[in-house]
Amino acid sequence: MAKSVPTEFKLNSGITIPAVGLGTWQSQPGQVEKAVEHAIKSGYRLIDGALCYGNEEEVGKGIKASGVPREELFLTSKLWCTYHDRVEECLDITLKDLGTDYLDLYLIHWPVRTVENGSSKLFPTKPDGSRNIDRKWDQAETWRQMEAVLAKGKVKAIGVSNFSELYLERLSKTWKVVPAVNQVELHPYNPQHKLKAYCDSKGIRLEAYSPLGSAGSPLHDDPVIKKIADKHGVSVATVLISYQVNRGVVVLPKSVTPSRIDDNKKVIALDEDDMKALDGLAASGKQTRFVTPPWGNDFGFENWFGPGTDAPEGFVFESRGQTFE
Ligand SMILES: NC(=O)c1ccc[n+]([C@@H]2O[C@H](COP(=O)([O-])OP(=O)(O)OC[C@H]3O[C@@H](n4cnc5c(N)ncnc54)[C@H](OP(=O)(O)O)[C@@H]3O)[C@@H](O)[C@H]2O)c1
């Protein structure tokens, strides 16, 4: 009998989440409304957004235009870094922009608090151009405020994003609610096997961002991945999306192209050989991260590789020209 693949997963809060959702980062004004409308009309129920993407009002219009009732959708958004001391205020902006009175899932976008200083509302910088980060801020306080909006019923589940094992361990000292989700960069060049094992052990569901390797991705040309795609007669994108679902991870491909949005819904069962090949690609010398916002090296390396750890050989602290705005 053919192996079946899940279409949804259970979160530790008891609610279910669709296995595949539409990403909206870098979906431009004038495109994102149509993309969201098309996605929902064609069967997507999970939409992944964030205040800092600057497009939630249009995402909201797309949701409305789809005609699908709110309660059938699963809406995720993220607390931006300048709001760590004002979680409810940030959430209220998102709710208003999306045109809804609750979220299904609200995440701390990054374990970093930045402080407004008049340079920029969302991306405040110091005179030397580096981000104006409050390095003394305790994430325990941010999480306490996340727990408060959950208790108020404004969100159905809370979670984190870009949290390493180290950051989760620190948070676990004071959390009352275990994060339902940790959304991190995941694809065969950055599978984060150790973080996955850790999150599995705590009942925290991983979500894969940049599952296709983001814009301009080299993953589409990888011979190992192409071979698996050819074997199953599907696109490379389908293999990359299916890889995450087959390992129990929620996956969030972004597209504003209707044909790709349709293709990205497709999930196939991968066999043991496929999974072994995909699981081993990073360790074979291809380890790469594609999303590396300029938080500063001290934060970045500690966050991603553990305290006092240098970046692995070959690691490049650049994001191929992408900015995080
Ligand atoms: N929590 C975080 O810090 C964080 C960080 C990054 C991303 N995210 C979330 O994760 C989502 C996905 O990540 P991402 O946007 O970085 O990248 P991605 O989904 O890995 O890749 C998106 C890129 O791939 C293209 N694409 C989409 N489907 C394709 C297909 N079937 N074949 C070929 N190319 C295809 C898209 O082009 P077109 O749009 O032109 O079709 C776009 O250029 C984001 O949108 C966001 O919701 C979260």
TrEMBL record:
Active site location: Y53
Site (Lowers pKa of active site Tyr): K78
Keywords of this entry: Oxidoreductase
Keyword Oxidoreductase in record: yes
Binding of substrate, residues: H109
InterPro entries given in the database record: AKR, Aldo/ket_reductase_CS, NAD(P)_OxRdtase_dom_sf, NADP_OxRdtase_dom
Residues covered by the NADP-dependent oxidoreductase domain: 20-281
Gene3D superfamilies, alphabetized: NADP-dependent oxidoreductase domain
Gene Ontology terms for molecular function: oxidoreductase activity
Key word Oxidoreductase present: yes
UniProt similarity note: Belongs to the aldo/keto reductase family.
This protein's name: NADP-dependent oxidoreductase domain-containing protein
Lineage: Eukaryota, Fungi, Dikarya, Basidiomycota, Agaricomycotina
